[in-house]
Specification:
The structure is a homodimer. Chain A has 14 helices and 18 strands. In chain A, 35% of the residues lie in helices and 28% in strands. The mean pLDDT of chain A is 94. β13 of chain A pairs antiparallel with β13 of chain B.
Chain lengths: 424, 424
């Protein structure tokens, strides 16, 4: 059987799992691909470090550039992570006409459309299933399915770390800090957790999904982003009583009939019956709503070496299968998107207020919300003169202004917490 | 822009929705496909019947063979249903080197591998996303994703009609007959419901999924099949009390390390926390367990004209995209599978028994189960001298023999109900 040389950049958790599968299952992969992918070289930072995988005939080298330049290698697998030097290595591989398989969401969010264009120019190919949702094949779904549909919204839980933390806050009744420390101890959060807990990781993935699903190009910095650092345990607990679970929801939508889109990543109270309600711990899920199919959910393990390797190896098999096809199946270039303004984006909310001791404070607050254009879907009294209000759908700007001015009312002691809310 | 002629066979609910999308969205579809699919002819049984869609320039004809023979038509969309004449029309289209898109699960289950081989011989292509799960793109997932994984099991709710009936039995507390009549009134069940309620529809879909997911060819008649006609409302209610929902679960598994497979379609008590537990009404879901990705679930609308049309039109766009690619991406031929015997297939169960009035009947029955090799996971007393036993995992044959011999014991008045059980 014909063989295709594979070069691997990076031998961390994902790289190791990819190497192991390529070496252990070469025969199966060859059968499925129509030619055998053969691991020929692996670039690592430290040649002397002990490795968990027997690389057999593959060379271990310190210079990733040498792997890219090797004429016996047709497929470059980038498993380094981060944007530098990964972006440059991917770019030089594509310019050399090679196929690239990457798990790198930061690179794909920042430079995906540019790299795709470079690939097209040089009859090269770029695969990135592993960049979003690890073992959850959402990239393949958006590239290859629902091709006659108009997608209206994407709603996702696509960051395992924050979902582990938020799940722990609810089930153990602990604060963000305690749950974070616990997640770090269990290996679910990095020592520096900011990429996850501040929402950047979810932003990167959402930008990629919006590119493929909505055909829109949005810069990561332009995404409406709120992390989970300020989610209070008291809000998680109060919402749990009402049947809601707080998740870091990544949401993208296209305005009906229009070219404008909206992308946000925010902690959101998700109602019982909503497809994201039960997506606990490290699970990821993407819910796609479109005009013909209705809604489709893909759910699976969103992190971990094995599940990420699953996506990378599947891309390698696809790359080998498609090696002789004309390179015209590239993703179409996204349109630079106009963003919806805060006056146009409609959201529902949750707010927890400590009322002042006046007898009519409750009624006055609810009236004040209505006066400011915020429908009240439900109001629930809680101990300690607290009032929980489920606010109805209204523009983000109207919500924000209402909360700001509410804070100054004499019958409001303090606004204790506020979150977006998603109904089933 | 280049165009590709499309011929449609059948103008029922699905065909109408497909025609409408092709006509209304030709520009969008053309952009996505790289050439415009143009509907040129539609074959219907009765030319005089009024139509819900304006076919514009497409010819309406009575002879499907004329559509297949039309040299201006490159893509044949089969939306007739049933095996005859659909199978012959698909075959003759493929032999003419044409691309076929079909929604026909009966044809694909009975003849899929043979038709795929014919397609390969004649450099033709065969797409069948709509044959399983309507708008839920599981065929695309199995053909294009998880390609480096070894899939161990598939667990599916893939028949909307039975799921609507079973959901109604639980929520309204009615019998199968009442729920069926209600489903028929609401358009969820046919006048002759046997294809659905006896499990054949789910069998057809499962056979297709096992072909693509396990690489195994199993004849529909060889699938272990139990329909839902004999599911008692009392069992549905008793199980609901214990946190279980009864669904018609389609299950396929490959024995670890072996070539033998097992396919079954049976009403199954699904525990809270299981991914299929919440799949209510007409929703469909497929849960795939594999060695790298872990488990992946795809969930969506499993029936209806629009969602089925979504899959058909997506296949048309793919067909147009791939029209110039070498026809070497066909599904590999499945292996004629050895089936696991009932001695090898392990299941857990539920059984509801009316005890005789003896004082020690309960203890004796539980002892009798253990004596026959059936672990008792839990035993719950119910009104009317009823005993509910959740039986632990044991071979199917051991379960069946135990129930048969239990029925003859003097301390057992009657075995009132028995079902498979699936835990989270």
């Amino acid at each position: 059987m014909e063989s295709v040389g594979v070069g691997l950049l990076g031998l961390g958790t994902v790289g190791t799992a990819v190497a192991r599968r390529l070496i252990d299952e070469w025969e199966l992969l060859g059968e499925r691909a129509g030619a055998t992918p053969v691991l020929r070289a692996v670039a690592v930072r430290d040649l002397s470090r002990p490795r968990e995988v027997d690389l057999k005939n593959a060379r271990l080298v310190a210079d990733p550039g040498a792997v890219v330049a090797d004429p016996a290698i047709g497929i470059i697998v980038e498993a380094i992570g981060g944007t530098d030097p990964a972006t440059a290595l991917i770019e030089s591989s594509l310019r050399a006409g090679k196929t690239v398989v990457t798990a790198n969401k930061a690179v794909m969010a920042e430079s995906g459309p540019r790299l795709t264009a470079i690939a097209a120019e040089h009859s090269a190919r770029l695969y990135f299933e592993a960049s979003v949702g690890a073992g959850l094949p959402v990239i393949g779904l958006l590239r290859g399915s629902l091709l006659g549909d108009r997608i209206a919204t994407l709603d996702c839980v696509i960051n395992g770390t924050t979902n582990v933390i938020l799940t722990q806050m609810r089930t153990a009744g602990v604060s963000f800090e305690v749950a974070l420390a616990d997640a770090q101890r269990r290996g679910f959060a990095e020592a520096d957790p900011s990429l996850d807990v501040d929402g950047w990781d979810a932003v990167h993935k959402l930008v990629i999904l919006a590119w493929l699903g909505l055909g829109s190009r949005v810069a990561p910095a332009a995404v409406d982003r709120v992390g989970i650092r300020h989610v209070a345990g008291a809000d998680v607990a109060a919402l749990a009583q009402l049947g809601y679970r707080v998740r870091l929801v990544a949401h993208a939508e296209r305005a009906p009939g229009g070219a404008a889109v909206h992308l946000r990543v925010r902690p959101t109270a998700v109602a019982t019956g909503h497809l994201l309600h039960d997506v606990e711990d490290a699970d990821n899920a993407v819910v796609i709503s479109s005009d013909l199919a209705g809604r489709v959910m893909l759910r699976g393990l969103g992190a971990g070496g094995a599940s990420t390797a699953s996506a990378v190896v599947s891309d390698i098999v696809t790359a080998v299968r498609e090696r002789k096809a004309p390179a015209d199946r590239a993703v179409s270039a996204p349109v630079e998107a106009r963003l919806l303004t805060e006056e146009d984006v409609e959201v529902a909310g949750y707010v927890r207020i400590r009322l002042s001791p006046e007898a009519d404070a409750r009624a006055l607050v609810l009236q004040a919300l209505e006066d400011r254009g915020i429908p009240v879907d439900a109001a629930v009294d809680a101990p300690g003169s607290e009032l929980i209000v489920l606010t109805g759908t209204a523009p983000r700007a109207v919500h924000d202004r209402a909360l700001e001015t509410l804070d100054t009312l004499t019958h409001v002691d303090e606004i204790l917490g506020a979150l977006d809310r998603a109904e089933a």
